[in-house]
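REVIEWER CHECKLIST
Item 1: Sequence provided? yes
Item 2: Single chain? yes
Item 3: Sequence as submitted:
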Amino acid sequence: MEKRYDILVIGSGIAGLFFALKLADRFKILIVTKQQATVSNTYYAQGGIAAPVGKDDSVELHIQDTLETGRGLSREAVVRRIISYASQGIRELMDMGVQFTGAGSNLELGKEGGHSRERIVHVKDFTGKAIEERMVELVRSHPNIDISEHSFAIDLITQHHLRIPESRKKKEAVRCFGAYVLNTKTGEIDTVLARYTLLASGGCGRVYFHTTNPPVATGDGIAMAFRAGARVANMEFIQFHPTKLYNPSDTVPFLISEAVRGAGGILRRKDGSTFMEKYNPKRELAPRDIVARAIDHELKTTGAQCVYLDVTHLDQDFVKSHFPTIYEHCLSIGIDITKEWIPVVPAAHYMCGGVVVDENGRTDIEKLYASGEVAYTGLHGANRLASNSLLESLAISHFAAEDIRQNFGSGESVPPVPPWDTSGVFDSHEWVVISHNRLELEHIMWDYVGIVRSDRRLNMARDRIEKISCEVLDFYSKNPVRQDLVELRNLVSVAELIVRSALARKESRGLHYNVNYPYTSEEFKKDTILKTS
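Item 4: Structure as written out by the authors:
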């Protein structure tokens, strides 16, 4: 089936929903999301949104904290523009009905690693959930926005899909006309055409065996954009969150928010001794890359399965009121965090690289924008400052919406596009290939491309992933499209990009630490850019 809209949004996290709400007064918009609308990384964001709104804070202080954490790779002009928007973004969310803790009197501000001031605007410890649910409610009630759930974008549509010879000129700029979208309930593939498309599909944490990300985070947008000809940058910079709840029987990962350490949580070994003072003077409030590497080192040198986060010295009522989600979840598995330590381990959490965009969210591909974790704006550089991610999503979606509003032309048209081609495919009934290769890929990435890397391990990963890639692409070319197959195709593509980028960076900087190059070099004070050949 063919569908036509003014604007197509791929993804239903904060970036996609905020963008749609910004433009819905004028344009007809379709949001496609591969599960329910509320299933996104945004929903699971506990901490909050960084914004310099405190009396002792300023835009300049927030900028300096961001640049320092970015280890020399943040784009200062982008950093300045996004952080200058932060206060406006918070006001707009409040106008939309998001009830931040302390709103109406004085916003209660938290402090997290890398921040020199208390500046985390939050809704207790379920900020993302509160924002996501409110935005989905607004989107569902808007007459100009349609939401298509259980709809999975397979590939972006460009002129290379057209059956017009003139459209295949090599020097012609690539233009996006929408996407082919799989209905995962029926198996049908729709041709969704739009004058503008926004990628807001989130990150790729599921490429790793240990991750805080939900199952939908399979790097779909990055892989689609790269296949279509967009540049990607800095894929080697994967942020590992220091404190994922360690629970081997838990099928759904659970994050222990940065805000817990910000409130005074102390990291301990099993014997009760502390260790962060060995690694950084800021101890538990050091940037995430330092804390994650410290825990990783402790686990490898002691052989322990986890370390512990201790909040038993804090007031019990404070803990229960400020971290109700964490308290209740831990209690459900038999841990009373007001009396017992929380077992934690690092896990893949956030992609600081992504599809290259300008300050308005424009990609290399005409009419294609990107916002959120899928995009590389230059805000984070080599390491993300805690709680800058939701801020980035708000700001870039706002700038992209304004850019489209100003440049949307009435004369623009979308040409006829052929339906998805299913000729030459058959069902081999060998779908075990998917689950087997995916599990192997996740372990390769965790074991060889994790928190601490080496050239030897990276080369081993490259060779093994190349073999998996050949198997997956061969299987994909011969079998019907299914969500698990397309997700694996995307994960393999993203894994290759991460490894290629990591091998290209002959230094240690921010989130990328290579034991062969433990120093930071001015020679590599630049982005790692990759593009399809």
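Item 5: Key structural point noted by reviewer: The two ends are 32 Å apart (CA to CA).
Item 6: Recommendation: ____
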